[in-house]
Amino acid sequence: MACRLDGHVVSGEIFNTTNYSVHGWLEVRGWNHPLLLQLTGNCSDDLAGWHFRFESRSASSDPHAEAASPDLETLATQQVGPTGRITMVRRGDTARGNSEAVRPKSCPDCPPVKTQGRLYLEWFSQNGRIVVEIADSDVEFVEFQELSVSGGGEHGAALRPEEPGEAGDSPESDEAELTASGDISGDLGDGESFFSDAQPADDDDEEDPYDLFPRDLQLQLDLQASQTDWDWIEDEDKSRAIREMELMDDLIENSPGVVLSDLFDNPVKCPLPDELDDEQVEKALKSLLAELALFGIAMDVCPHFTPREVYRLLLHEVCQEERAYPELRNTQWVQHYSTSDYCELCQAEFDQEFDDRDSDAEGSFGELDPDEDDLDEDLPF
After folding, report:
1. Which among 50, 126, 252, 325 is most buried, taking Cβ atoms within 10 Å?
2. pTM
3. Strand, helix or coil at 161?
4. Phi first, then psi: what are they for 218, rounded to 5°?
5. What is the rounded CA–CA span in Å between residue 315 and residue 261?
6. Nearest C-alpha neighbor of 85 from the set 198, 174, 237
7. pLDDT tens digits for range 171-220
8. Residue 212 half-sphere exposure, CB side, CA atoms within 13 Å?
9. pLDDT digits over 302-315, tens only?
């Protein structure tokens, strides 16, 4: 079941000015801190590339507004995971008085434009599917950046050279399966995947419009949660933060963790990237990211990686080699991985920046470095 924050979000600010990265904050009624967003993906086409601010026109300005409902107490303060639909149905442009809500993208120096409309924010995180729908919002479009992948190149091709007989070489092997042993294998039979082509709907009852979760996943998670019994939870006098810190300390000291492919109770079947078109690859990537997000595991994407390359990296490298703790599911702990750690272009840019700073530092020091004879003259002995 989706967690709907419609009546709780007062205002917010969203940035999608970097390709495949959406971050920002939401003001939640009754909270004394913002809800932070660090999401993988882009906004829908109408909002992609934009930095915008919004405010609910129906939100109360009373500083003593009613506190957030108890069901929000388990909401992770830092939300990570893939984007769903982030879009807007515009009602008009208050600045120009027409139906165009956004200034022309060819006019970056124009002043920000404000508009009104229905804002729909959706993402998948540690708390599952989150939806914020504001029927009457004021939106200010601040800045636009064209989104593109710079540098090009198939990074993923060099991640794990496939030998004859490995997954992907055989025409029958067109699906990857992350099993308890960490192997990649499987068969789609007739070439079908578990990813549906169903498009998102406006129906409030639609729980999973992108089919990012298998139908029985929520039931499995609820069952697992009900069967989990940690002694430290029994102390009700401890705050959630303290309990989770104690859990983390215990895990670090006593548990080696598991590789990411072992986090899931049942095998997660993932179509191989080379068997999918671009749209299918993105669905498969977001499905895998949504399941990892339940454990607080996030993937940050650098400007040089395409969704296909990110998906290949996750399947062949990250999920097979990196480790995490299954006990941290639905906690506040977040574990970030980044494509920049595997990107030669990012590494070259970092090295160049380091060399430039080193040269500037040496130049500045050389200008200030006094002559050794002058130093001797100033010594009192």
Report:
1. 126
2. 0.71
3. coil
4. -60, -40
5. 9
6. 198
7. 344 566 664 333 333 332 333 333 333 334 444 445 555 555 554 555 45
8. 32
9. 999 999 999 999 99
